[in-house]
């Protein structure tokens, strides 16, 4: 059985132009031609296309994909190891950006008084202003928003760097507690939650235990918070939420 170029494009989720290009460079030449000269792809061709798309998804350039598929002496494991190193470096960079997102959505975007160069130095590729409109729409009429605007309007680059460093250290504490098997209602976890609450109050706005508990719930109910926090360690958002709740209970008469 054979398939037309249009059918194969539909199967694989690629464009007809892509398949024509693969044919032109010899990466995927269809095994058959119709009487009219149109490309026809066999099951074996589809298997090769699947391999091509796999390597392309990992970021391999087309010439390396061809070498992997056509050179019997090529070692796919060596190529994959190299690509794994590149992907690991990208993941580490994304995790750092994710940690910055969590801080931005807690009001960091409210009034950052930095030049573009200073923002880049503190936050890297992440732009903390991108959530300003959403933050203003959701909390613009609250005392917390007004307090945060007033405080952060005077912050310097050094202030934001200190806040970033504090957040990073707190994340490391929570991760270490999780990895040590400490339950979320342990003294260590509740102490970390209390430091988290006090950091918000110190740097942004008054954050009582009720508000802090609401923040903890948002960490697991808003997938953006969950995704960003869990970038440091899967399950961290729920662990922080539970520690925040336990700490609130501990301080409730």
Automatic annotation (TrEMBL):
Name of the molecule in the record: MerR family transcriptional regulator
Q: What is the lineage of its organism?
A: Bacteria, Bacillati, Actinomycetota, Actinomycetes, Kitasatosporales
Sorted alphabetically, which keywords does the UniProt record give? Activator, Coiled coil, DNA-binding, Transcription, Transcription regulation
Listed transmembrane segments:
none
Q: Which Pfam families match?
A: MerR_1, TipAS
Domain HTH merR-type, by residue range, is 1-71
Coiled coil regions in record: 77-104
Superkingdom of source = Bacteria
């Amino acid at each position: 059985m054979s398939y037309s170029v249009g059918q194969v494009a539909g199967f694989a989720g690629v464009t007809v132009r892509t398949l024509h290009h693969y044919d032109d460079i010899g990466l995927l030449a269809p095994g058959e031609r119709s009487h009219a000269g149109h490309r026809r792809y066999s099951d074996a061709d589809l298997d090769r296309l699947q391999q091509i798309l796999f390597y392309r998804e990992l970021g391999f350039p087309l010439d390396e994909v061809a070498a992997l598929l056509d050179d019997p002496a090529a070692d796919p494991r060596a190529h994959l190891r190299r690509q794994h190193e590149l992907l690991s470096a990208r993941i580490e960079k994304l995790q750092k950006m994710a940690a910055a997102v969590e801080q931005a959505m807690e009001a960091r975007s409210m009034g950052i008084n930095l030049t573009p160069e200073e923002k880049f130095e503190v936050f890297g590729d992440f732009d903390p202003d991108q959530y300003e409109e959403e933050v203003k729409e959701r909390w613009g009429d609250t005392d917390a928003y007004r307090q945060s605007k007033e405080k952060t309007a005077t912050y310097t680059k050094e202030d934001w760097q200190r806040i970033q460093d504090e957040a990073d250290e707190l994340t490391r504490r929570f991760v270490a507690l999780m990895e040590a098997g400490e339950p979320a209602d342990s003294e260590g976890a509740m102490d970390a939650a209390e430091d988290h609450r006090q950091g918000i109050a110190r740097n942004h706005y008054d954050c009582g235990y009720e508000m802090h508990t609401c923040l903890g719930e948002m960490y697991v109910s808003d997938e953006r918070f969950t995704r960003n926090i869990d970038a440091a360690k899967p399950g961290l958002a729920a662990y922080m939420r539970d520690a925040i709740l336990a700490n609130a209970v501990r301080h409730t008469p």
